[in-house]
Design goal:
The chain has 17 helices and no strands. The protein is mainly alpha-helical.
Length: 376
């Protein structure tokens, strides 16, 4: 067990340090590490865990890391995986927040991101292909995944897509009676995002903690949904931040590796220094540990229920469609010229032909970007 805990700590410290690109990229890199290389579990099992994270609020990739730590090393692994995945990004964001407060500007990282993003596109594409072969078990599931992808690109809410895919899979396999039983699964998540704090609030560490605990407990969806939550309360209701500070906070969460939810660390530091950063970080990530601890043992049981298994198959292909949609959007922003396309092609060959670890590809791309920055 001690050896397993060391392995879990190393894997997720490494991923937390180099996992740029948001949740889709994080999931792709985890698949590379724990399925292809270390054989901790099969691809089907990873898909089930990934699908399960879509049905609970909070940062999906962090919750997947926590699930994987639990599967590998029990309750201690659950804590070690989550903390090691979160810690590197928290420290980086805290350092950037300190520099931001001191100097009033964000660091220039455009060239670094220019080199990293094409690699992330290749990593996501390779993982989506591998996971797709496991998720698309039938022609109907393939059709369902295509419909989910189209709905995502048309702007349909993520929860509606997941619920629709899960219920459609249950209907196709077990008939109308199964839909009534399965629909209860999606009732509680659908209610969550509508809850909001109202009224002006004086700033304090306790209200800051409560606010981010609420966000971590209720938020489904992407970093853009997080932006909406933060703007509604921190800017419009409480007046704790300006619009510009909020946009800078979101940018920092996007440009650093690891969970996008470390935006909370930046906001907390702006408002309350190091104590504020600690309080906000604990508040936004604590629910993820609780939700995974409560739901972790349920996933294998769901597979033993025919109706639940059908729902999970539908949720899995829809989750994969969400991942592909993010990859397509990232591709449009990353592959902007011939050099960026060449970087993506080289990364794809390295991943598929030579099985180079995705973490080292991202690290190499960051080094290339830093070199480009020095040359400019």
């Amino acid at each position: 067990m001690r050896e397993r805990l060391r392995e879990v700590a190393w894997v997720f410290l490494k991923l937390g340090t180099v996992a740029f690109g948001g949740p889709a990229a994080h999931v792709a890199m985890m698949e590379d590490e724990v399925v292809r290389r270390r054989r901790w579990l099969e691809r089907d099992e990873l898909l089930d865990l990934f699908g399960a994270t879509q049905l609970i609020p909070g940062p999906n990739s962090t919750e997947l890391a926590i699930h994987l730590g639990y599967r590998r090393a029990g309750w201690r692994g659950l804590l070690v995986a989550g903390l090691c995945f979160i810690l590197p990004a928290t420290l980086m964001v805290g350092a950037i927040a300190w520099a931001y407060v001191r100097y009033g500007a964000l660091p220039q990282v455009d060239r670094v991101l220019y080199a990293i993003k094409p690699v992330i596109v290749a990593v996501v594409a390779q993982a989506a292909w591998g996971l797709g072969r496991s998720a698309v078990k039938t022609r109907f599931l393939g059709f369902l995944g295509g419909a989910a992808l189209a709905a995502t690109l048309l702007g349909v809410h993520e929860l509606a897509i997941l619920a629709g895919a899960g219920l459609a899979s249950a209907l196709a396999r077990h008939g109308p009676a199964a839909v009534a039983r399965a629909s209860a699964w999606f009732a509680l998540p659908a209610l969550g995002p509508g809850v909001a704090v109202t009224g002006a609030q004086p700033f304090g560490l306790a209200p800051l903690f409560v606010f981010f605990l609420k966000v971590g407990s209720l938020l489904f969806g992407s970093g853009y949904v997080l932006l909406a939550f933060l703007r509604a309360d921190l800017v419009d209701r409480f007046g704790w931040l300006t619009e510009g500070q909020l946009l800078d906070a979101i940018a920092v969460g996007q440009l650093t590796p690891g969970p996008v939810f470390t935006t909370a660390t930046f906001v907390g530091y702006l408002l309350g220094g190091a104590p504020g950063a600690a309080v906000a970080t604990v508040g936004i990530f604590l629910p993820a540990f609780v939700f995974v601890a409560l739901s972790g043992r349920l996933v294998p049981r769901l597979r033993r229920s025919p109706i639940a298994s059908a729902v999970l198959d539908g949720v899995n292909v829809a989750s994969l469609a969400l991942m592909v949609a993010v990859g397509l959007v990232l591709g449009r922003t990353a592959l902007v010229d011939l050099p960026s396309v060449a970087i993506a092609a080289i990364a794809a060959v390295a991943l598929v032909r030579f099985r180079v670890n995705s973490a080292w590809l991202v690290t190499g791309a960051a080094g290339l970007g830093a070199l480009l920055y020095l040359v400019d």
